[in-house]
Specification:
heterodimer, A: 432 residues, alpha/beta, D-Maltodextrin-Binding Protein, domain 2, 2 domains, five-stranded mixed β-sheet, three-stranded antiparallel β-sheet, B: 306 residues, mainly alpha, MetI-like fold, two-stranded antiparallel ribbon, 2 strands, 74% helix
Chain lengths: 432, 306
Amino acid sequence: MRRLLTIATLLFVGSLLLAALPAAAQDASEVTLTMWTHDGLYVQFFNARALEWQERYPDINFTFEFEVVPSVFDKVLGNLAAGEEIPDLLGIEQGSFPRFMQGGIIESKFLDLTDLLADDYDLIVEGRHTPYKYQGRVYGVDSSLCAVVYYYQPSIFEDRGLSVPTTWDEYLETGAALAEEGIAMSYITDHGGMFMMYLLQRGGAIFDDHGEFVLPDEENRTIAIEVLNLLREGLDSGAIRYVPSAEVWGPAIMNAYREGNLVGAIMPDWYSDYILKPQAEDMAEQFRIGRMPVWDDGTGHKTSVWGGTGFAVAKENENAQFAWELLQYTYVTLENQIKRYEEIAYYPTMAAAFHDDRIVGLSDPFYAGQKTGEIFAEIVDDVPIWYQSLFRRTFELQMAAELALFFDGAVTADEAIDNIVQYMEDEIAFAE
Amino acid sequence: MVQAAMTRGREARGGGGFQQHKLAPYAFISPFYVLFAFFFLAPSLIALVLSLFRWDGINDPRFVLARNYGRLVSDKVFAQVATNTAIYAIASLLIVLPLALVLAVLLNSKSLRFSNVWRAMYFTPVVTSTVAITLVFQILYSRDTGLLNAPLIYLGLEPIYWLGDRSWAKVAIIILIAWRSTGLLTIYFLAGLQSIPEELYEAASIDGASMLQKFFRITIPMLRPIILFVSIIVLLSSIQIFDEPQILTQGGPANSTMSVVQYLYERGYTRLRLGFASAVGTVLFATVFILSLLQLQWYGVFRKED
């Protein structure tokens, strides 16, 4: 009987060990990494890099579930509120970052990357850290420099013996000439972010490095009014066309390009592969990239900045370390920053890549073989910094309304700025 | 023998029979009330309580008393979106409702051929995705390339900026609402029309009543319950409108097409002010409730029959 009991005990313990061992081995060798974003180009790029990166771990069988998720930020915030899982990697579009700043969500649910970036922090330009900063710490690694250039159709200028304008005065002058034929140089929409883009180029600011609302400061107010008046002049002459935000990313713009009544757009680097190429494939070789016009008095910056998507790592997920390593490999290495420009045309954020031959010398067939990196290389030393704030989205949404009124002629530039300042002060007071 | 069996049956059912008889009706109607309590009453009460707090949905809420309501009253954007919503509601009642009634009368006509085909056509918008419809309308409304502006451009006239002009954008939304909801309301009216006894019209014809007299003296009075039902449906749906302006104009330009529910959504989900959004929801609920009561009162639902 005792012998029988001993055998049974051994069998029981043995079976437990056998059951436990494969599980442990399986845990170590099977890892699923998830990523959610709003932009399919990130999925494409991360998938390609993940296949390379996983070779560092030959014993682990990785599964990569990277996907574009509609209303991704609503879904992630909803999941957090419900205590459900969020993806290991999340691409946070910088305009939505303030939603994650609310109540310190970003700090409590995502990895602080400041120390993890360590020496790499300084390799990336500061202006690409600021949109993802919360209380001085960085929570996202950006996907592109977002420097602004002028996408244009050279034939429209060449056919009329006009040259590509380099200053705003030239821009308005050339635009006025083209407007006589019903052709606009570019378009503007009622989007607060687009206004900030023009304001930053002029040297103004909406928020400072602490996230404080500084538009009411005399200098910024003056610049804001100057910028609005510049746009007003362009709208009145027909050099700049107003397109409501409902139509701005859709076919209306592409059709205007095709019909030749719109020369191009003043937009950041992401406009090329995210908007222009997929929607205007048939217009290959008809576009070129030029520099954003500068202010004639020599003040302000050579370019501006708008947009960006910073990838953050969910810190409570069990694969947070793997997620960070993949992000680091994909976005914080010189080689892959160059590949990113080669594959999806999102311009590098590391200064070391700006003048690399592979960036500067890259010919883009869509732009008839133009070495577009050369244009960016001329301006990268003067990209303004876009500071983040908890109230950034509040500003953008209400500024959109004020812009629509301003473009419509219902309010003057002064009134538009006074209205938005009043609204923001009320909102900030309410939030305290 | 039979009497004895009945007695045994009563005895068999007897233990606790009184209680069972008393509770049974409640048990039968309980599913609705349980669901009502869980999915309507409880959330409504929670929203009411939440409207007194500041809460981002993740961290602990903070009691702020009536501060959310104070901001709501002082926010000029709320006044604007409330006005927009009122315009949608009034336009729906004044345009969609009569249009649906007229269409129903036409579809009910005996001389109409292929009536089922027509009915199906009018009902199609109801079963089509709002997103798909709205995207199609976005293309139709495009200033330079939209179908609606094509005749104007062809004639050399200035095209209408449907989605870029504050007034026309509202009209664009109202047209979409009308196109989308008229079909369903037409079906309701059609059902009502088919329940009106034919003898009434025959008698009126014998008395020499004209078409208009029959319409106003027979059709309208007989349809009164349906009109009441439909007008409440229209009011509720137009006050809670969200999809159409959200997809078509995102509430712009200058908030000129933003509805109260869009405002609620934007404040609640984009700015993560769930307490404030609850205050908006509470005000919206109270408004809908009061308006519905007024409508019922106006249609004489509370009037005691002699």
